Structures are given as C-alpha cells and as structure tokens.
Amino acid sequence: MQTASPTPSVASMDMQAEARRHLWLHFSRMGGYDTEHEIPIITRGEGCYVWDDKGNKYLDGLAGLFCVNAGHCRPELAEAAHKQMRELDFSIIWSYAHPKAIELASKIASLAPGDLNRVFFTSGGAESVESALKLARNYWRMCGRGQKAKVIAREIAYHGTTLGALSATGLTDLRAQFEPLSPGGCHVPNTNMYRYPDDRDPLLLADAIEDRIIFEGPETVAAVILEPVQNAGGCFVPPDGYFQRVREICDRHDVLLISDEVICAWGRLGHFFGAERFGYQPDIITSAKALTSANIPMGAMICSDKLAEPFMEGTESFAHGFTFAGHPVASAVALANIELYERDGLLEHVQNKEPEFRAMLESLRDIPIVGDVRGAGFFQAIELVRDQETKETFEGPQAEGLLRGFLSGELYRRGLICRADDRGDPVIQFSPPLIADTAEFEFMHDVLRPVLTEASQRMDMF
Ligand SMILES: Cc1ncc(COP(=O)(O)O)c(C=O)c1O
C-alpha cells in the first residue's frame, strides 16, 4: 500500500521526479516520460515568450492553447485580479448578482453580434458547450417540441471532453474510451478544402447538414454546432457562402445554430467573434479561453433573446449552473482584458498583420513536406505531406514518427512552441498571442525552415 508523501517545498524538490510521481498531465502519455524524456516545466512568461526551469526561452507560438491572446503576464490583468480580490473575493451568481458579473455580461452583450444579449457564465469551454447543448434541448422542450434533442457536428471537430460535449466531438479516439456517450450526436463532413475535389461545389458540404437533418427527422434535431474555423484537422476555413447556407438550412428546419468559438472568439480571427469574420448570425456562441486571456478560468455561453425568453417568465428557470461561473475575480480580469483589446487595438493589429504572418508561412511552400497552408487571422496551420503533387499523407506509425518522433521535439528544442497534431492528417498549428509582430514571425520562419527541410530529407525514415 502507498503511504502519503510529506509535502516538500517547490524549491527543495526534484520537480521532474515529483511531476512524474504526482501530476497527471492531460492528454499525455505519462509512460513516455523518463530521465531521458523529461516533462517540460514552464516557469515564467512575458509577452509572446515563456521560459522553462532551465532558463531556456521559447516563443509561445500557440498562446498557451489558443488562449493567452493579450500576451503573458500583462500587469493590467494582474492588477485587476488583485484589486477585485481585496474588494469582493467571491460571490455566487445563483440567485445573487455582483457588479463585475453584471458589467461583464453587459459588455459582452454589447459586443456580441445581433440579438445575442443574454450571457450565461461558465468556467471553461466544455462547460460552455455543455450549457449550449442543454439550453438547445430545453428551449425546444419549453416550446412543446421536446423530441428535438439531437445535435449535428462535424467529423474530427473537438468540442470538449465532458460527456455531453463529447457527443458533439467528432474524434473517434477521444470518444472510444468513454462510450456509451450522451445520445444524439450526429456527424457530417467538415470543410477540409485541401482534400475536396476541385470540380465539386463546396456548398455541398453545407447541404450535407441538411441531408443529415432530413435523415434524422427535423422534429428530432435541436442544433447544429460548428466552429467558425475548425481547429482539429488543422484550421479548416469555411468555403465562401458556407455559413450563410447553413443558416438558411437551420431556419428552414427550426434547428438552432451554435457557433463554438472557444478558440475563434476574442480576437483570434481579427474580430471579437468568429461569426463576424464570416458574416453569419448564430443563435448561441460558446466561448472561454481568451475571454480572460487565460489569466484565470472563465467561459461564457451567449444566447439570443429568443432562446432566453421562455426562462425569464413566471416560475421558470434554467436548472443548470456551476459554482465558479461568473467568479468576481475572473469577471474583473475579463473586463480588464477586453479593455486592453480596445486600448491597444488588438483586433486591428491582427487584421493588419494577418497577411504578413500568412506570407511567412506561405514562403515555406518550396519545402517538399509542406502540402498546404491555411487558416484565418492568427490561427494558421501547415499540413504535412509525403508528396505535394499527390497529397499523399503520413498515416499511423508514420505520422507518429514524424510528429512525436521528430518535429515536436525539434521545434521545441529550437525555441518554438506550436502544435504538431495528427487527429486528422498531420499538421502543425500556429496561434501566437495577438501582440505577435514581425520579430516573432521571423523567428518562427527561422525555426520552421531548417526543421521542415530536415523532415523532408528524412521522410523515408517515417
Ligand atoms: C472549439 C472548442 N470547443 C470546446 C473546447 C473545450 O474547452 P475547455 O478545454 O476549456 O473545456 C475546446 C478546447 O480547446 C475547443 O477548441
């Protein structure tokens, strides 16, 4: 039997050993870490950069995980948290309200597109998605159409890991360990235009949603959930007119449109909300991550007046909530974060600098392993291929060897944090803090060119 360990101070303990012994890293193969393959330990951040416990500096080309949008350790956010903690550390938003949650809800409503005026706070992305799915079901029940409970999502899309959100997540490997899931998740093709036949109408991808609604029976479908730019698979951008067609389809069949903007909101695409970039009006937006620039956990599910209305009358209520939702300190940080965006013109910066960022990535196309470059705003990906002409991909152990055996380690060793991912075809993803500029793009280039060139030369080994 294991006995309880004494608690050592951080300074005195061997952090590697303690991390391997006690810390359960998410989505990580804990068995892969040993004395030769250490757990990276990040100890400090500033602006676009972080440092590890050995003093090595890295460009955080992923902004944490698509979330430290204003850059690391902004004093304005620390001060907002400090001030709030001295004034009102915590108060629940179940039946009570507090000034910062009120102010933040009003601010978000003023920024959100159309009549998305009602804000339901959460503690993170999966909770926002979970809340949206529960609202969609419950809304239809309140309308006397309780059979409308299914949700249509896209293949390979990630919507979170809680059991409800997981039923929307379209990644077999993430679902398999936990089945049976919450029922009602249906999947349709995503907008992978790189592998879509040139001679086929791209809007057939939107029509596939209608086909599925009809197949399931519109009287059983509550909502469609889509990211403005799909992350998993590598920044799948919608073809022109896609979301307008989806909106028409949803309206035709009385199905709600949920825009999952856990990544795409808060400036990532150069707008407060991703739906603005592509000009569509969702019924619900789910967000989290960069709402506080990840300085403190917080999410928000933002819905239209129409959806909230049935819950605002008489003795009705939405029987759903989380203790930490709308936390005063998180709300204060989110308000300070939005203020920073506005003061520093971060949205305009992304809009102005997107072409330069993209051009840097495009300039790598001469390297044989670079198959595609795609994305929007400061959310871009490179797809890796064996053959640019045939688009032959790396599968199974080959992708494993390329990404985990070589690229991830090599990019990190040279000081660049980005994401090498093979949940679809292998890609490397980039989502730097929104303050990134020419110096950061140049550094990315100077790391990527030799590493991708070497990967091309070693292709036969993968
Ligand atoms: C589109 C999308 N939805 C939901 C989630 C889940 O968010 P969280 O990890 O905060 O629960 C994520 C996380 O990356 C996401 O990208």
CATH homologous superfamily designation of the largest domain? Type I PLP-dependent aspartate aminotransferase-like (Major domain)
Per CATH, the class of the largest domain reads: Alpha Beta
How do the strands line up in the largest sheet?
4-10-9-8-7-5-6
Strand fraction: 5-15%
Which molecules are bound in this entry? pyridoxal-5'-phosphate
What does this structure look like?
The protein is an alpha/beta fold. It folds into two domains: 40-73 and 346-461, Aspartate Aminotransferase, domain 1; 75-343, Aspartate Aminotransferase, domain 2 (3-Layer(aba) Sandwich), CATH 3.40.640.10. The protein is 37% helix and 15% strand. It is built from 15 helices and 15 strands. The strands form three sheets. A seven-stranded mixed sheet has the order 4-10-9-8-7-5-6, with helices on both faces. α3 packs antiparallel against α12, α13 runs parallel beside α15 (438-457) and α14 crosses α15. The longest helix is centred in the C-terminal third of the chain and has 20 residues, at 438-457. 48% of the residues are buried. Bound molecules: pyridoxal-5'-phosphate (PLP). Pyridoxal-5'-phosphate binds at residues 124-126, 129, 158-160, 227, 231, 260, 262-263, 288.
